[in-house]
Design a protein that fits this description.
Helix 1 runs antiparallel to helix 3. The relative contact order is 0.17. It is built from five helices and seven strands. The longest helix has 17 residues. The chain is globular. By secondary structure, the chain is α+β, with helices and mostly antiparallel strands. The chain has a four-stranded antiparallel sheet, sandwiched between helices.
Length: about 140
């Protein structure tokens, strides 16, 4: 069940990214897949992720994919990577729900995993929106 949920979530995220302009890291620059002639200063993964998620169309498409591929209510698996300093903030996003926390090999980052019963795609988007407010968070 967990593998199926993860595969479905990964497919959702991948399909959502495919519907948006792509970014690729090339040497010291990031270029738009639609415009290879323009270059921009190098961005981190978090910056690229925020660029997608700040776009209202991205959220609309993501929500549509969630509705198409899930029968609500469903248990939804959330995964985030956050700097150790942001652990308490990301845990507050989940309130009293149990979370699994694993530290990176050097201990600078932690991965946070939570399974929550969601009644609609709106609730899933609300959790991702709240998590996006945490400094340095990466949604998986």
């Amino acid at each position: 069940m967990a593998l199926l949920a993860r595969t479905r979530r990964d497919r959702l995220f991948t399909e959502t990214l495919r519907a948006q302009p792509r970014w690729s890291v090339l040497d010291a620059t990031v270029r738009s897949a639609d415009d290879h002639s323009s270059t921009r200063p190098r961005r981190s993964i978090m910056d690229c992720q925020r660029a997608y998620q700040d776009d209202e169309g991205w959220w609309t498409n993501f929500q549509k994919l969630l509705d198409d591929q899930n029968n609500w209510p469903t248990e939804y698996l959330f995964k985030f990577i956050v700097p150790r300093a942001g652990l308490e903030a990301i845990q507050q996003v989940f309130g009293d729900h149990p979370v699994t926390v694993r530290a990176s090999s050097r201990g600078n980052y932690v991965s946070v995993t939570a399974k929550m019963m969601m009644n609609s795609s709106d609730e899933v988007v609300d959790v991702y929106s709240a998590a996006a407010e945490v400094e340095g968070v990466v949604s998986l």
